[in-house]
Write a structure and sequence with these properties.
With 340 residues, the chain is an alpha/beta fold. It folds into two domains: 33-153 and 244-284, Bacterial extracellular solute-binding protein, family 7 (D-Maltodextrin-Binding Protein, domain 2, 3-Layer(aba) Sandwich); 157-243 and 286-338, D-Maltodextrin-Binding Protein, domain 2, CATH 3.40.190.170. The chain has eleven helices and eleven strands. The strands form three sheets. It has a five-stranded mixed β-sheet with strand order 2-1-3-10-4, sandwiched between helices. The protein has a four-stranded mixed β-sheet with strand order 8-5-9-11. It has a two-stranded parallel ribbon with strand order 6-7.
């Protein structure tokens, strides 16, 4: 056998071996699934849980099992305050969290804590979908390598309690209202003339029952799920906060995923967001009727302008902390959505 023939055979053998190795690596990579452990504090009845299950079902089906997702509800894996550190450590890969808990890490998320920024679930959804949501997610990724995969928009929060209906800020004068332990929420109630009482969510029912507070604030589904209609007889549609939750996920996993799996994760996130928003809307639409049937007296407020005027100083105070670019972009998009 000539030296030339031997050389050619060696080349063919080496090429074949390298192709085999590449093929084996590709097959191995495809065989190894992406595993996502998603957690939340809410129970199985919540819109967030239903939405995260939708993510699981979509991702697993479309990827033919190459993406595997488990959803753990009711705080089985931890609490919201630990979510960011758990994702960084790789204990979990995703979590349902209120945006107010992200503002300490990325101040731009504080924009959702400001009162009367939007008037409805639909309005905030439209603003987020005009790339404002991605704009904020990119800021969070730059600092933490954690991304916002889906937005869970539940609609504005309202005041409910036992002191009678609210029709103007005067009706809130001196009212002891339970709020989350958030400085903007505390200041909002102070500007509206109330006396804010920061308490853990687990203490809210007992506080209403015993008169430690006169009122609390939240969305219909919260009052229904916690059966707080048993200890609160009035609800007024103050619509003061519209603070969303979101599904945050480990960007490192997304970044390193194959292009095909990235696309599936993007599509699953959109499905997750759609299910959450539609489920919450259905809950809110049905919620008022349910609460009224439970004996709550619910009133709309003819003019929210006096409320909005009183809290305007908070926009001026926190605007610089949130960032002029964030505030300007938000107000421009809101103007576009409102058509004025």
């Amino acid at each position: 056998m000539s030296k030339k023939t031997i050389a050619m055979l060696l080349v063919i053998a080496l090429v074949g071996a390298s192709l085999g190795m590449a093929g084996g690596a590709k097959e191995g990579a495809e065989a190894k699934p992406i595993y996502l452990k998603l957690g939340l504090e809410s129970n199985k009845e919540s819109a967030q849980y239903k939405a995260m299950v939708a993510y699981k079902e979509y991702a697993e089906k479309k990827s033919n099992g190459r993406i595997k997702v488990d959803v753990f509800d009711s705080g089985q894996l931890g609490v919201d305050k630990e979510a960011v550190s758990m994702i960084k450590m790789g204990t979990v890969q995703g979590w349902d969290i209120n945006t107010s808990l992200l503002s300490a890490i990325e101040p731009s998320f504080m924009i959702f804590d400001l009162p009367y920024m939007t008037t409805s679930q639909e309005e905030l959804v439209k603003i987020l979908e005009k790339n404002f949501g991605k704009f904020l997610s990119d800021k969070l990724v730059a600092k933490t390598e954690i991304m916002v995969a889906s937005w869970f928009v539940r609609g504005p929060r309202n005041v409910y309690g036992n002191k009678g209906p609210i029709n103007s800020p005067k009706d809130m004068a001196g009212m002891k209202i339970r709020v989350m332990q958030n400085p903007i929420m505390v200041k909002t109630m102070e500007l509206l003339g109330a006396k804010p009482v920061p308490l853990a969510a687990s203490e809210r029912y007992m506080a209403l029952q015993t008169g430690v507070v006169d009122a609390a604030e939240g969305v219909f589904s919260l009052v229904i799920n916690q059966k707080e209609y048993e200890v609160a007889k009035f609800m007024s549609m103050t619509g003061h906060f519209n603070t969303p939750n979101c599904l945050i996920m480990d960007y490192r996993i997304y970044k390193n995923a194959a292009a095909e799996l990235k696309q599936i994760m993007d599509e699953a996130a959109k499905e997750c967001q759609r299910v959450s928003i539609e489920t919450d809307k259905a809950m809110n639409d049905a919620g008022r009727k349910i609460l009224e049937e439970k004996g709550m007296k619910i009133n709309d407020i003819a003019d929210l302008t006096p409320f909005e005027t009183l809290v305007k100083p908070l926009h001026d105070e926190y605007g610089p902390k949130i960032g002029k670019d964030v505030m300007d972009r938000f107000f421009a998009l809101r103007k576009e959505v409102r058509g004025k």
